[in-house]
């Protein structure tokens, strides 16, 4: 899967079913007769592909362009190392300097099985999968909210999609969640193995989306925050695990769970649905709701009880805000 997708100026929306209103919410808030007749472009005006390795991103870009041909939307590459808060801040600055709108942000990149710390000294899986994304989202939120206020954008059409995982279920033991002091020291409680630490970072993805929805309600911010598990997808995610002999039994267990793994093409359905399903369209899967955690595609309620623990989610929110304070001041 791609590293990270940021999509400004996304004006391409799925065609609305015949006779269906665009958005009741939007019309209540801001009547816009003139917009109805406006022709809608059929593709994003621009996509940012953010990656820690620009050579890899260039290769991915070439592949995308050759597959999409003349239909390919303009794609810009953006250097982003989620393991460095400075790098995240620089990437967000670049977007803000270059764009006047940002419609969709997909927080997709992730690591599984990595050991060590981020450049800022946090446990690596938590640092990359949660903290790096959290800073990116928070720094770009003003631009997203600004976009959501535009007359040609419906409430809830601006989206932040956070790719979590069913692996949130490995975030055990529940009584030590969240072990912030350990995570700050670059480690995690000794009873927490690699999978538990990965699970913890994915639990954080689910909690963070729920807290964003709580702190920035869609009716006020215009932005919808969605967390999802993409399914068991054949990607490079498990590569690092194979280099760790002592987790081979875990790997085998996982492989068992992964029976029925899907292709990358199918694995992105959830993200695409969450990012682009039109506001107010109720047929089929229906539209995603802010703060909800979905399994593929559009299935609610698949998480563990911990995934819906508002107290733990609030603790994570508070810690994250405090930790990122230096970067958020004045943003
Ligand atoms: N595959 C599954 O079955 C599955 C299941 C549940 C959830 N997920 C989630 O889906 C998301 C995508 O994973 P994937 O399966 O597509 O794995 P993947 O093929 O390994 O892709 C992960 C991407 O994240 C990038 N990345 C890693 N560390 C980064 C950093 N510090 N800064 C910026 N980018 C970084 C990687 O960049 P490089 O190319 O430079 O390594 C890679 O492009 C992850 O959040 C994962 O937790 C996957």
TrEMBL record:
Residues 1-44 are annotated as: Disordered. One of its GO terms (molecular function) is oxidoreductase activity. SUPFAM superfamilies: NAD(P)-binding Rossmann-fold domains. Residues 13-43 have a biased composition (Basic residues). Keywords: NADP, Oxidoreductase. It holds the Pfam family adh_short. Gene3D superfamilies: NAD(P)-binding Rossmann-like Domain. Residues 1-10 have a biased composition (Polar residues). The keyword Transmembrane does not apply. Belongs to the short-chain dehydrogenases/reductases (SDR) family. This is NAD(P)-binding protein. It comes from Aspergillus campestris (strain IBT 28561).
